[in-house]
Amino acid sequence: MNFTRLPFAFFLPERASTIAPRVDGIFLGLLVASAVLVALLIALNLTFLIRYRRGSPAKRGPIKISTWKLETGWISATTFGFLGFFYWSSRVYLDEERPPAGAYEINVTGRQWMWDVRHPNGRREFDTLHVPRGRDVRLLLSSEDVIHSFYLPSFRIKQDVVPGRMLSLWFNASKEGTYPLFCAEYCGTKHSQMTGQVVVLSPEAYATWLGAGTAPEGVLVHGRQLFIKYNCAGCHDQPSQIHAPPLQNLYGAMVPLADKSFVRADEVYLHDSILLPNKQVVAGYAPIMPSYQGVISEGDLLEIIRYLKALAQQPASTSTSSLP
Amino acid sequence: MSLLVTPPEIETPMPSYLESGHTVRSWLLTLDHKRIGLLYMAAITFFFTIAAIAAALMRIELLTPQGDLVTSDMYNRLFTVHGVLMVWFFLIPSIPSALGNFVIPMMIGARDVAFPRLNLFSWYLFMAGGLLALYSILGGGVDTGWTFYTPYSSTYSNSHVMAMAVGVFIAGFSSIATGLNFIVTIHKLRAPGMTWSRLPLFLWSLYATSLILVLATPVLAITLVLITLERVFGVGIFDPKLGGDPLLFQHLFWFYSHPAVYIMILPGMGVVSETMAVFSRKPVFGYRVVAASSLAIAILGFLVWGHHMFVSGQSVYAGVVFSLLSFLVAVPSAIKVFSWTATLYRGQISFETPLIYSLGFIGLFTIGGLTGLFLAALPVDVHVHDTYFVVAHFHYIMVGGMVLAYMGGVHYWWPKISGRLYHEWTARIAAIITFIGFNLTFFPQFVLGYLGMPRRYHMYPEQFQTLNVLSTAGASILGVGYALPLFYLGWSFFYGRKAGPNPWGATGLEWQTASPAPEHNFETTPVVTTGPYAYPEGNDMP
Amino acid sequence: MSDILLEPPPSPFVDAKQHSEANHLGMWVFLATEILFFGGLFSAYTVYRWSTPEAFAQGSGHLEYWIGTVNTAVLLTSSLFVALADLAVKRDDRRWVTLHLAAAWLLGALFLALKAYEYNQKYLDHLVPGPNFDPHGGAPQVQLFMFLYFAMTGLHAVHMLFGLGALLWLLWLNHRGRVSSHRADAVAVVGLYWHFVDCVWIFLYPLLYLVAR
Amino acid sequence: MHSAGPTKPVLYVTYAALMGLLGLSAWAAYWPIGQLWNFAIALLIAAIKTALVFFIFMQLRYQRGLIRVFAAAGFFWLAIAGILTFSDYITRGALF
Q1: How far is B15 from chain C (nearest CA, A)?
Q2: How far apart are CA C61 and CA C59, in angstroms?
Q3: Of the candidates A45, A149, A189, which has its C-beta nearest B72's C-beta?
Q4: Neighboring chain C residues of B117 at a CB cutoff of 8 Å
Q5: How many CA atoms lie within 13 A of B399 on its CB side?
Q6: For residue A99, which residues of chain D lie inside 8 Å, CB to CB?
Q7: Least CB-CB distance to A163: which of B151, B334, B373?
Q8: The domain that contains C149 carries what CATH number?
């Protein structure tokens, strides 16, 4: 369905993601239902108001219809109507919230009052987000100060960016072009200037734009420096005096936790575990790691996570301790 | 309702509450619920004016996409002042504390509320809170928005958050005291024969409101205490640096603030029920269901706060549950709208000003309620959350609903308050101007919101300008609609035609006593023998 | 003219029974409010204890077990005295009303004294949240626990202060002979409040002191 | 309405029970049965103690329905706040 072709659809912004038409569908469905209901109410009210104005000759007297039947009638009609819309909208929402496997991941950090974007190869940009068309893209959102909200109206998606946590947002851009980006959660003085744009490129154009970026070796070298600077190496390099889990092939693996559950070691897990290590403790290890909350900057944190990712993609022969 | 009022045996009638003392002291130290009601009315009119001026400045600023009239900091302070004052110092006390105080005891046939001293004390608490809020505004303002989201409010904002939080905290205790007083009054002070099934619907709605006041406000109070402590000590439980969760603040805040929305609409529904019955000379259709729906709203209203947090990082499953509950809470509201419409059927309708306000309420509340369904629908909310769509939605409920109902209530009980009538046609025209101005102001904001304009934006992209200009134009008309009653009601207070005890031919107990009401409401305790709205049926006019 | 300074205000009640019922209902409604006032803190406690149990165990270890236990006993005993005072009022036994209320007051004061001693200990140990906080080798969320500890017990202590004030007022009323079996509401209603504050502590004790012994 | 109420012996027995429960609670905290069970037992004892205070000291046992409803309302609404808030925390991240 292409609603923007319709002449009355001036109130619909551009649709540039695969989810947007489905959201608009619910919106229009609700709009039609509401319009019918409002029209009905206006018609009834106007009829009654005119017909039963004081002194009019219209017939009065007790109402014949059973009050009880009327009441039950409209209570059940509205309830079932509402439940229908609930079912429809929740289906779309769950699809919108469940990130597809193998999505292309980009880090976005919000700070007063700018968006800091890091592409997987290390390319950085501010207040602009370049993405390839037709590919599942997952944004990993974090904040350095207050709550922001990453809002792409043309994609119909939005996610608050909360300090201390990594949250994610995924989309599949369907149309090339430049679309607005807003901060939607009030974040202080220049909240209204924390805007930018998202540029959807063809996959080839995106690859060109992305360029070489930082080579994986660069990531390893820089990441290793940070790994030492923040004393991660002291415990996590193997062998170590302190009993700490090895991080060599951690990224992407399933990690057994002390409470006997499992969690996938994705970016969110690494991010939150560095900030709050005691929340999800690996089975067989004591909760002795100090929290890096407030100690490490969001930027360095993301660099270390990239380092851990790069480690997992290394050939198995090189060991952590032998790295430069 | 027909009454067995014993014919007055006393020769000299009781003086009216307005004549029982003319000194300032006789007002400021009064224990009479009617005078306290008027004290509230004066206070909320004052706060409303300040908040409305803030809104006017914002609307003028938004005429152009650039931030040219005020600075961003100033703009942020303006919307905070507007929100805080309108919510806590106008809407929440409007119908309950001002009109409710005035009419509740009269409607149940009592001399006063159960705890008159507490009643006066809660007005002083309200004023203390209000003055503290004013102090924080004049001392430099607050730039957090009325929602005080952490960690911005607790750590990053360099404004007078503490004074404002304490002001709202104090005003909260005024709300609690008022709610407590109303609950006890309605339970214990009903006149003989005034059973629950004979209780006017306005009282049912105020009873439900009072339950929310008593059960929700304390959670806001403790949350504000926590914010204040966090600012004092520099650390706090919402601080992500300690592993605290900013979303916990949102949970606690909305546990109060969503039910608070029903504090701001239930009393309005009560006024509409009263006026629909009186001006169509019929009982409200489905009295029991309408009464029960007030209680249902009060209870269900506590279960839906999570829909303010759909994009906050709250769990997806919690989001789905809160969405379901939010759809369901709309059912009792829909019941009321249908019942009011059915009340008109076969009525004897006369178009007095209160009815015009009520009809306006029904229209605007319906739109506000229906757009609430859009916001309950998860993916649509994800898109329009924190945009002008939400702003338009809650203004349709709070201004289109509550302010119109408040104005309707003021007009309806004006003869009882002042003993006089206002100029009917001027009042009707003011009501219609308000209705038109309101729609012009806020309807464009629905469109703005779906197009993606975020709220709390000082500057905005140019493509949004046309709709913003429309909205500002509407606001100027709305301003006229608000200002007119100040003049003609003020005039009528001193020079209006005498109203007599029951100018509308209404059945409520409050209309069975003199206008303005006597000091102790009734010469003798009334006895109730029939249900409310016992108007004669058929074509004969009383 | 009903003016707050001119005693007494015209009663809105038809008789003493209605008045008494209203007083009791009013206090119970107020207590419902109080439950939710503390409830915000209890909710926060639940969430954080669930997410960082070991920090709560460490934090609880910093609290004085014996003070918590003794203070619970002190409050329970003071509640008994308030309940006995209520009985004495109904017997019109003014002397015992005074003695019971005074005992309850002294126990309340003892509670606060022990509380103050413990606060001071925490201050000396750098366990008060803020720039001087020292987690003693524990997780940073120990500070969250201590914040909750001070917020919850502090709020409770404020309620105790109001309660002590109310007991003094009752003692004064009784001294002036304005408490009797016909005017028993003041003691009964203040008693409700006192018992309620006691109940809050009954929960604070295991939640704060007994996390991991 | 308030002529009925607990007698002196009832108060003393209640008090003895409360002190006994306090002792049990203080002792049970040291049982080596795991933190969860310690917590459950401590809360259960606190709930019993509160019930005793509410029903005897605060005379809820001798009151009519209305007062009981309001006494229960506070706890009921507290449960709403606690359960719905908590439901968010325990289901977070489960989708991924």
Answers
A1: 10
A2: 5
A3: A189
A4: 4, 9
A5: 29
A6: 96
A7: B151
A8: 1.20.120.80
What's the CATH number of domain A3-97, 1.10.287, 1.10.150, 3.40.50, 2.30.140?
1.10.287
Class at the top of the CATH hierarchy for domain A216-322: mainly alpha
Query: How much is the pTM?
Result: 0.91
Residue in B161, B177, B57 with CA at minimum distance from that of residue B115: B177
- From C42's Cα to the closest Cα of chain B, the distance in A is 11
In chain A, which residues fall in CATH 2.60.40.420? 104-210
Parent domain of C133: 34-209
| A128-132/A196-201 β-pairing | parallel
Query: Closest Cα partner for A169 from A211, A198, A205?
Result: A198
A293 in contact with C at a CB cutoff of 8 Å?
A: yes
Residue C107 is inside which H or E element, if any? helix C94-124
The ipTM, to two decimals, is 0.91
pLDDT by residue for chain B (542 residues), tens only, comes to 444 444 444 456 678 899 888 899 989 999 999 999 999 999 999 999 999 999 999 999 999 999 889 999 999 999 999 999 999 999 999 999 999 999 999 999 999 999 999 999 999 999 999 999 999 999 999 999 999 998 999 989 988 999 999 999 999 999 999 999 999 999 999 999 999 999 999 999 999 999 999 999 999 999 999 999 999 888 888 988 888 899 999 999 999 999 999 999 999 999 999 999 999 999 999 999 999 999 999 999 999 999 999 999 999 999 999 999 999 999 999 999 999 999 999 999 999 999 999 999 999 999 999 999 999 999 999 999 999 999 999 999 999 999 999 999 999 999 999 999 999 999 999 999 999 999 999 999 999 999 999 999 999 999 999 999 999 999 999 999 999 999 999 999 999 999 989 999 999 999 999 989 998 898 888 999 988 998 876 544 44
Considering the segment(s) B34-512 as one domain, its CATH architecture is Up-down Bundle (1.20)
Q: How far is A212 from chain C (nearest CA, A)?
A: 41
Number of domains in chain C: 1
Ranges of beta strands (E only) in B483-522 are 497-498
- Contact (Cβ atoms closer than 8 angstroms) between residue A33 and residue B327: no
For residue B23, how many other CB atoms are within 10 A of its CB?
10
